[in-house]
Amino acid sequence: METPITFWIAFNSGILALLAFDLLVLHRKIREISFREAAVGSALWVALSLSFCAFVWRWRGPDSGLQFLTGYLVEYSLSADNIFVFVLIMTFFRVPKRLQHRVLFWGVLGALVMRGAMIGVGLFLVERFHWVLYIFGAILVVSGVKMFFQREEEELAPQNNPIIRFCRRCLPVTEKYEGGRFAVRRDGRVFLTPLAIVLIMLETTDLVFAVDSIPAIFAITRDSFIVYTSNVCAILGLRSMYFMLAGAMHRFIFLKAGLSIILTFIGIKMVIADLYKIPVEVSLMVIAAVLATAVVTSVIVTRGRGARGARR
């Protein structure tokens, strides 16, 4: 179903308005985000996303509504894996808590632009070269299996990122944070601040995650409007979810295994699509069941443990 250009304009205008309100009104002053504020923010973003899902359901019918809901759940759950790495990055660079919202805001804004471009390229390839779906499916299966067996110490290390190493060696960088600024001018020269390095790290990390998350949505639908909007809605809730869960990520010990199963399932669905098309309803139930099982089991097993005990 072709989506009128007015809907694209209206959706993106609404997103920009919400982001502007967030930056210029709610978080005009640099400050630390409390757990309660993050929880309220997460609930609001989820509520807005589900409201948009209801709109799509009414406007384009149950099939499109289910496709959006499934795609949103997939992207939102995969965003949880981003948080593991974001916590690692913030800790490694010792980002003050009051500056974390600012760098995440611009990181999410950059991620929206990058993912929009990647979705456009992906759809272009899928529409013209059907066999690309098999490559996407294989990538998801390999990524899922690799994630399942990956050890914590093998995860992305900020100090090994080649872009960060280049920035530190070849670009002028201040030794200390300069408030919420990403660059400062000294003696006629422009210096990056450590906050800019963190932003670069967040953007490159999200690019790596997008290689998994973008193909995953193509297994659900190839409707460009549904693919784009479900991705955007999921990413917008990432900041609030970070501040709500960052201090408790050590408790979700089975979440990575659950995400790996979801990625593998979606990859298999994509590979066998020409032989047997798994209904969207079944996909939604499987993804929701795996995610709920991983979260609930993690919470039960780690009940009463401290951060140190949970990591053992």
Briefly say what this structure is.
The protein contains twelve helices and two strands.
Draw up the topology in text.
Elements: H1 5-26, H2 35-60, H3 62-92, H4 97-128, H5 132-149, H6 162-170, E1 183-186, E2 189-192, H7 194-218, H8 224-236, H9 238-245, H10 255-271, H11 280-301, H12 307-311
Antiparallel strand pairs: 1-2
Helix pairs in contact: 2-3, 2-8, 2-9, 3-7, 3-8, 3-9, 3-10, 3-11, 4-7, 4-8, 5-7, 5-10, 6-7, 10-11
Molecular structure report:
By secondary structure, the chain is mostly helical. The chain has one domain. Helix content is 73%, strand content 3%. The chain has twelve helices and two strands. A two-stranded antiparallel sheet has the order 1-2. Helix 2 packs antiparallel against helix 8 (224-236). It starts with a helix and ends with a helix.
What key phrases describe this protein's structure?
mainly alpha, globular, 2 strands, two-stranded antiparallel ribbon, disordered C terminus
By DSSP (H or I, 4+ residues per run), the number of helices equals 12
Mean pLDDT: 84
Strand order of the largest sheet: 1-2
Helix content: over 70%
* Alpha-beta classification: mainly alpha
Strand content: under 5%
According to DSSP, the number of beta strands is: 2
Low-pLDDT runs of 5+ residues are 307-312
The best one-word shape is globular
> How can the largest sheet be summarized?
2 strands, antiparallel
| N-to-C series of helices and strands | HHHHHHEEHHHHHH
**Assembly type:** single chain
Give the domain tally.
Answer: 1
Distance between the termini: 50 Å
User: What's the alpha carbon Rg, rounded to whole Å?
Assistant: 20 Å
